[in-house]
Amino acid sequence: MSLGQELAPHLPFLRRYARALAGEQQAGDAYVKSTLETIVEAPQQFPRDMGVKLGLYRTFQAIWASTSEDGAQDNKEPSSDLREHVTRKRLVAIPSEARQALLLTAMEGFSHADTALLMERDETEISGLVDEALAEIDKQISTRVLIIEDEPIIAMDIETIVEDMGHDVTGIAVTRDEAVALAEKDEPGLILADIQLADNSSGIDAVADILGSTNVPVVFITAFPERLLTGEKLEPAFLITKPFQRDTVRAAISQALFFHQV
After folding, report:
1. Would the pTM of this model clear 0.90, i.e. be above it?
2. What angle, rounded to 10 degrees, do the helices at 246-260 and 152-164 form?
3. Which of 95, 208, 219, 237 pairs as cysteine with 19 (C-beta 3.0–4.6 A)?
4. Are 146 and 174 in contact (CB under 8 A)?
């Protein structure tokens, strides 16, 4: 099996991490593209000794860490896509190492030991960074959250997490029409949306309808994340995979609000 074939299953999830880290699809996907270009240019330098997935994320982390605000990546000219997006205003507020550590552990499921390897830190430092990120979440300004989810138990779990974070829930919608009606009645500051809804309507369509009249951050929830992480079309920046862990939801909400406030 070629290196490209070994990397392929991990690319959708690297896109998820990159988008959450950069705050948008285009910038995140540009970093992933630059990562792949780096691997293609020097495959012999790919760190196979740590495994394909870790090696892929380690290559990405090196590019992320070495890219400055003006697009300079060490002494190497970055790709045109990366050069274009790294200079955007929102990337001036690049998330701290604490947020990187939280996303790698809570969203991507890496152990503290693996995260330490990826970030070139020791495990004790990673634990401290994660604690720092969680403390930042507790300090975030509260907002009003609309939940679009047709499975009652999951909706209740999300509602509990959201309220425990200090946010208010404006309502829970199970269909596209309900979601639009609730948003019109009480404008949310954040939307958490499932993809497939009760009447076979789409959470994506519901969000598109709502965003036609307001601008709020959105976190999508799906059991099939690969379908929205292709890099081939307009796709979400923030995505949670079902089944999810509490810290995964917290990390995604925090990151979405972080960039909306930039």
Report:
1. no
2. 60
3. 237
4. no
Question: Which residues, in sequence order, are CB contacts of 198 under 8 Å at separation 6+?
Answer: 150, 174, 175
Q: Can you list the alpha helix ranges (DSSP code H) found in the chain? A: 3-7, 11-22, 25-41, 52-66, 80-86, 97-102, 112-119, 123-139, 152-164, 176-185, 203-211, 246-260
The pair of three-digit structure tokens given for residue 241, joined into one six-digit string: 């995979």
| CA 4 – CA 17 distance, rounded (Å) | 19
Identify the CA nearest to 39 among candidates 81, 4, 80, 90.
4
Confidence label for 89 from pLDDT (cuts 50, 70 and 90):
very low
DSSP notation for 181-250: HHHHHS--SEEEEESB-TTS-BHHHHHHHHHTT----EEEEES-GGGG--SSS---SSEEESS--HHHHH
What SS3 class is residue 170?
Answer: strand
Walk me through the domains of the chain, giving residue ranges and CATH numbers. 3-136 (1.20.140.160), 140-260 (3.40.50.2300)
